[in-house]
Amino acid sequence: MKYNFTFNSFTAKIFVFSFLMMAVSIPINAQNNESNKKYEAIDMTEFMDSAHHWYDITDKDEIIKALPDKPKYNLSEITKIADNILLFQRNNGGWMKNYDMRAILTEAQKKALIETKDNDQTTFDNGTTYSQIEYLAKVYSVTKENKYKDAAIKGLEFILKAQYPNGGWPQFYPDTSGYRKYITFNDGAMIGNMNLLHQIIQNKSYFTFVDNALKAKINDAFNKGVDCILKCQVKEDGALTAWCQQNDMINFHPQGARTFELPSVCAGESSEITLFLMSLEHPDNRVINSVQSAIKWFDKSQIHGVKVETIKAPKVTYKYRTTSSDRVVVNDPNAPRIWARFYELGTNKPFFSDRNGKPVYSLAEVGRERRDGYGWYTYDPEEVLKEYTVWQKKWAKDDDVLKK
Hints:
This protein has 12 helices and 13 strands. By secondary structure, the protein is an alpha+beta fold. α7 crosses α8, α9 (267-278) packs antiparallel against α10 and α9 (267-278) runs parallel beside α12.
């Protein structure tokens, strides 16, 4: 059987149209396949603090507001999360705090972020900037999409630019007004940066794109950072103790920040710092002495027989948050040991404070807004003391300070 086709102008148009549609569909399908590709989830624990603040804390300066009941990207949707991170990155290479990188943004929210790229309220507070860089590096390692690598490098250059010559980092950069200028350990700022640089120095597989020139700068910044940490350790009566949340960027003395954050020795931040120092592959005598001194301080500063309970309370709305709970300290002889957040300089006595900036010596004396809205006690030193048993056998085997 024979078929005769007449290839007229109409048929030609149909043929050309079909060919063009096939050509267009190839990249579209490729894009769809890429966006629908399944990846292994990347841990986002370091982003949780900022996300919590976006949803739960009122901030009039936010560029975009959290919308109620909006869905989030699944943890395995790493390219979509990474694209969000690119949207939030500012032109100077850093990131603003207190947003959720997993939020599925509206077109209006995306537009607002793009239009404010020159906003320079960039920071290391609440897990910001160093967490984004690490995430982008990990996404690049599995996708090989250059946009993620380029953004990570830009972020690393931002971190290097923000570092003080003495090795410390401010809480914010370039805005170093008020307490933002201090060398900041609070909420992981300084140690977050140091841990990130440490990963590059350790040649983690997801940072192999960092070239030798940049790695040399990172190595120098890291060494200066270690030196700064050691200089910030509080010394009282000639003996090293632990660390404050903030330190002066000139003389390294303890400093306050918000009105309820007074100069003090701080158990939580000191735990993170000590764990970092114990992670160093080849600690010198200064580092070993610093760790030993901190362990002594943790040991003598532990509190027994009490625990903190969260209880229901009438709903109340404050300037920054709404709460239906309160916190109380109760006596319990079986409670695990615990540490206060702040210890008074000179006396090592646990203390608390309110927004009036006056120290008090029981949590009950703090108004409910701060009592329920801030972490006044911590178990973080417990992990430090556990890790110390291994570290001490390697680096101070003849000097277990916990047995003295």
